[in-house]
Amino acid sequence: MERLDKAKYDDFVKENYGSWEEFREYCVKLPKIELHAHLNGSITPKTMNELIEQRKDKEPDLANFSVKNYIQPNFQLEDFFPLFNTVYRLTDNIKSIEYIARNVLEEFSNDGVRYIELRSTPRKNTEKGMTKQSYAETLISVINEVNKKGNIIVRLILSIDRKSTLEEAMETVNLAINLKSSGIVVGVDMCGNTNGGAFSRIKPAFEYAKKNGLGVTLHVAEIPNSREDNLEMKSVLPDRMGHCTYLEDDILKWAKDNKVAIETCITSNIICRTVKSYETHPFTDYIKNGQPFTICTDDKGVFNCDLSNEYLIFGAINNYNKKQLFEISKKSINYIMCKDNELKRKLKEIWDNFEINNLN
Ligand SMILES: [Zn+2]
């Protein structure tokens, strides 16, 4: 929030929302869809510290992992590197995964997210008896439990790290195919460090996923000069693409023509320095060009953001009033991977009810 020059938008906010507080309240109340959120990056420092407390009696070295107040107003990506080690350590067993998933989903729900396709990379830890399969099944069982409560509808995307071998990537795709019948797993994702190697190496796994009815989303063009990779990714015909901050115009046009939505992660792009400022974020071009896109958080725990605030930033910069912001959030229903028409109807009903009660 501190990165947004609020004074510049004071008049607009006053006129359309009353005050910044009322603007924030509206953004929380607005039903929202989250389509790009990594489980591990979404863990808050609070949850990490709770887990450390729970586990440190049996694992005394965990006391050294205690998460301090990393989140300062002008935090930079470098400030978070110690966090990544902590997250890796804390997600090494089934019980902790359950605790984390419950907390993360509850936070999204409290933030007014009504539908989420959460993503996570299945991890194995032989020492603690965790397999990729039991990891994914644990998430499915927590998701079923959360779905039953009815405040938020959750689906799962299994992520594949860019540096995986083709064999490892295929293992995750096969796991996703086997778990599709749960009704929870809807697709696969490619994520991870952009230095992880050429996409072409693991491309067949994503083609196989598509052939077997899974949705596909890919982290695309997060760095400049990745033309060859971008073309390879496009040829898989992904359902959505993440980030795309350096995507060439011809591929953007292809995405528009084929209704392939961009998962735009505003604050994440700023902190990772792929975009200089909120004011110069490519979403202004997306609006101008009629590009399909959906606003997402990426790693809300690491970047200290939430989806309501991303909507607030987007609304302020583009001078969007209540109705316009509502239309943006409603459009995301078109971009979900879940092909269940009954679910889409249910989501439309939630948005229609909000409109009747708040915008007429
Ligand atoms: Zn991401």
Helix content: 40-55%
CATH class bucket:
Alpha Beta
Spans where pLDDT lies below 50 across 5 or more residues: none
Biggest sheet statistics: 8 strands, parallel
**General shape:** globular
Tally of DSSP helical segments: 15
For the CA atoms, what is the radius of gyration? 20 Å
- CATH fold topology: TIM Barrel
How many domains make up the coordinates?
A: 1
Q: What's the β-strand tally?
A: 8
Annotated CATH architecture: Alpha-Beta Barrel
Strand order, main sheet: write it out: 1-2-3-4-5-6-7-8
CATH superfamily: Metal-dependent hydrolases
Structure report:
Pfam families: A_deaminase. InterPro entries: A_deaminase_dom, Ado/ade_deaminase, Metal_Hydrolase. Keywords: Hydrolase, Metal-binding, Nucleotide metabolism, Zinc. This protein is an alpha/beta fold. Helix 1 (10-17) crosses helix 2 and helix 2 (20-29) crosses helix 13 (307-317). An 8-stranded parallel beta sheet has the order 1-2-3-4-5-6-7-8. 46% of the residues lie in helices and 13% in strands. Helix 9 (227-235) links the parallel strand 5 and strand 6. Zinc ion binds at residues 36, 38, 191, 219, 242, 298.
